[in-house]
Write a structure and sequence with these properties.
alpha/beta; Rossmann fold; Dna Ligase, domain 1; 7-stranded mixed β-sheet; 25 helices; 28 strands; ligase; ATP-binding; nucleotide-binding; CoA-bd; ligase activity
Length: 700
């Protein structure tokens, strides 16, 4: 499946950044610590097949590399320039490079927005120059790119500082150059191949979306790993990730989750990060797998570069230690069905193997197990067709199971069956050298093996959810265009009753209400609305009525109503309303905000006055389809009540979905809305009533 995005000029391709015909390194000098010289040496070390030309105003000689004085002197076959000069000098190079038809530039140096106000001004000028002269820019403040197949990298790190991986099927996208170097080095140490990698630093042009699109359409990339601190265009990234995850696993590590990390991200790449909770919701919706440390990303990329497709969720766990089996079961129980083998399979195994082994799953071969017995047990269990994946963790310290078990495993394990092998201590070293590690992934701890198998199960579950979403039944929609037009024409934020009046005109249910400006209005109102009643303040500046004693519930008599109205009217003259008190139901909170990364976001969960205490809130990036919305609702504690219990009937989730989608479309199509909140909306078996509404507008 080819990923289609916004139409761009021909020069928008990122292919040249990975496989240039010829490279100019501007700023290279004979000094040993010169960045440009290091880049040239790295290209030479990794045998880049194309021509490399240095540019230096004094034309100082470099080993095995031609040098010219000016950009204008470069030969015509150069199509990529790597700029290793000061930030001020970068600005003067864009126009002459464009005149030489060099439309792809990597800016490796710093001194831009990450350094403060002055650097930000320079960075904005660089961005403007790139657009003006039709040049695509990677960086600034970056390492650039790596392509094992093309023997190319723009790194200024020597082979002593960074060990690069061989060819493989992994694509890596990293906002941080330091993180990318650690990741590449870690994969190389594990002898795991990488196809391509990119670091974009301050990201004024080429960023994660261009890289993700390129990797999605690259048939040599099977799995994509990402490290991001912020998002250049969160909405575009979300759409792309939804498409990419259908065909390729995407593992993502988010930096800047909390306040200290966000400050650090701003300092080193000028990244502004949005809400981490929203990011997690985006991962769930798109089908990305979040990892939480460097080791988890290395293990996951290694595993998915080898793992075949998972057909089901039945996991077989085998170990030669009972305690390890318990630990693995606890780790995997939330992701897998760890069922016992059939009675027939267990009987067959007990007829061939000692009865003190346990074949219940996890299978425990005990410290007495032998290589041949381990192989026989695994083959019998896999051949039973009862399981979809194998987690095998072997412990050292027994004479029966040793490194020679690798020959058993190499011959009996099927190639199309997902397997993760964990081996501890000295046994890991033995198995690593003997096992066919290009087919069967092996890890140095049982926990690492278990967590990667869990990622496989998690990916399958996310894909199944997405497939269900794509086949969803449609519900009749409310028309949000009238209320959208109304809000877009307002110059100041409306109060609660104005909002609810508009909602009622759109067909949504709100309690009957009347304004009480003077005492005589009470009797007129009681003709229309029956007790019990609610008395409340309605004013655009009052967002939390309970905090200012601006709401009174369960008023059951005229005397009580009059007394409370007089008290409230002294504080808020002319802004008091009477409203029908609704019967008990399930109170929910439905809210919307604009995330700095991903734009419009839905928040939904248990509502009422204690919403901050319950913290039963799930999030979704908009737009969200009906099936995803139902799934998100069901993830809340309120969702369990909506489903119904032995003591209460199910509630009208379809009506809830219809109303939430109405709110969502309104919020998406009204850019001046900063946030919307409906708390509570009260759900019943046959209807939903909106009890409170508030909003804030950007211009207010």
């Amino acid at each position: 499946m080819r990923i289609q995005t916004q139409a761009k000029p021909d020069f928008s391709t990122v292919e040249t950044f990975f496989a240039p015909r010829g490279v100019a390194v501007i700023g290279a000098s004979p000094k040993e610590d010169n960045q440009g010289r290091r880049i040239i040496e790295s290209l030479q070390t990794h045998q880049f097949p194309g021509p490399v030309v240095a540019v230096h105003p004094k034309s100082l000689p470099l080993p095995n590399c031609p040098v010219v004085q000016r950009v204008e002197d470069l030969p015509d076959f150069i199509d990529l320039a790597i700029l290793a000069v000061s930030s001020q000098n970068v600005l003067n190079l864009i126009e002459p490079l464009s005149r030489k038809k060099i439309q792809h530039i990597v800016v490796v140096g710093g001194g831009f927005a990450e350094t403060g106000k002055d650097g930000k001004v320079i960075q904005e000028k660089l961005k403007e120059n790139g657009k003006r002269f039709g040049v695509r820019i990677l960086g600034p403040n970056c390492l650039g790119t790596f392509s094992s197949k093309d023997h190319f990298n723009s790194f200024f790190l020597s082979s002593d500082q960074l060990k690069l991986p061989g060819q493989g099927s992994i694509g890596i996208i990293s906002q941080s150059g330091a993180f990318l170097s650690m990741l590449l080095n870690g994969l190389a140490e594990r002898e795991v191949g990488v196809h391509r990698a990119i670091n974009f630093g301050n990201r004024i042009d080429i960023g994660e979306c261009e890289a993700l699109e390129a990797f999605a359409n690259d048939p040599e990339i099977q799995v994509i790993g990402m490290y991001l601190e912020s998002f250049q265009d969160g909405a575009r990234f979300f759409r792309l990730a939804q498409e990419v995850c259908q065909t390729k696993p995407v593992l993502i590590y988010k930096g800047g989750k909390r306040e200290a990390g966000i400050r650090a991200a701003q300092a080193h790449s000028a990244a502004l990060s949005g809400s981490y909770d929203v990011f997690q919701a985006v991962c769930q919706q798109a089908g990305m797998l979040e990892v939480f440390d460097l080791n988890g990303l290395i293990n996951g990329l290694y595993f998915f570069s080898l793992a075949p497709k998972l057909q089901g969720n039945r996991l077989l766990i085998v170990s030669n230690g009972g305690g390890m089996g318990v630990l693995l079961s606890d780790l995997c129980d939330s992701f897998w069905d760890i069922k016992e083998p059939s009675v027939e399979t267990q009987t067959s195994l007990y007829q061939q193997l000692p009865r003190y082994y346990s074949f219940k799953n996890p299978v425990d071969l005990t410290g007495s197990g032998k290589n041949s017995e381990c192989g026989l047990a695994i083959k019998t269990l896999i051949d039973s067709k009862t399981f979809d994946g194998l987690l095998l963790v072997l412990l050292p310290g027994t004479s029966g199971i040793n490194g020679s078990v690798a020959s058993e495993l190499n011959s009996l394990l099927p190639r199309n069956f997902p397997v993760a092998i964990g081996a501890c201590g000295s046994l890991y070293k033995e198995l690593s050298s003997r096992l066919n590690s290009e087919i069967f992934p092996i890890f140095s701890t049982g926990e690492d093996a278990a967590r990667t198998m869990n990622q496989l199960a998690q990916r399958r579950a996310l894909l199944l959810e997405r497939n269900i979403s794509d086949q969803e039944d449609t519900l009749e929609e409310y028309d949000s265009s009238p209320i959208t037009e109304w809000i877009n024409n307002l110059k100041e934020a409306p109060g609660e009753m104005e909002i609810k009046s508009q909602l009622a005109e759109c067909g949504l249910a709100v309690p009957e209400s009347c304004s009480i400006k003077k005492e005589q209005d009470i009797d007129d109102t009681l003709i229309k609305i029956n007790f019990p009643l609610v008395l409340k303040v309605s004013d655009k500046d009052v967002l939390h009525k309970a905090q200012i004693r601006g709401v009174k519930l369960n008023l059951g008599s005229r005397e009580e109503l009059e007394t409370e109205w007089k008290k409230m009217n002294q504080l808020w003259p002319g802004k008091i309303w009477i409203e029908q008190q609704m019967p008990p139901g399930l109170d929910l909170m439905v809210g919307f905000k604009r995330d700095s990364d991903f734009g419009p976001v839905l928040l939904i969960g248990t509502g009422g006055s204690h919403v901050e205490v319950y913290r039963d809130i799930e999030r979704a990036c908009l737009p969200v389809n009906n099936s995803d919305l139902a799934r998100i609702i069901n993830q809340t504690k309120a969702g369990k009540i909506i489903e119904g219990t032995s003591n209460s009937p199910s509630l009208n989730i379809n009506q809830l979905i219809r109303v939430v989608q109405f709110f969502a479309k309104w919020f998406e199509n009204a850019p001046k809305l900063q946030f919307l909140e409906f708390n509570p909306v009260r759900l019943y078996t046959n209807r939903l009533v909106i009890l409170d509404a508030k909003l804030k507008m950007n211009s207010c």
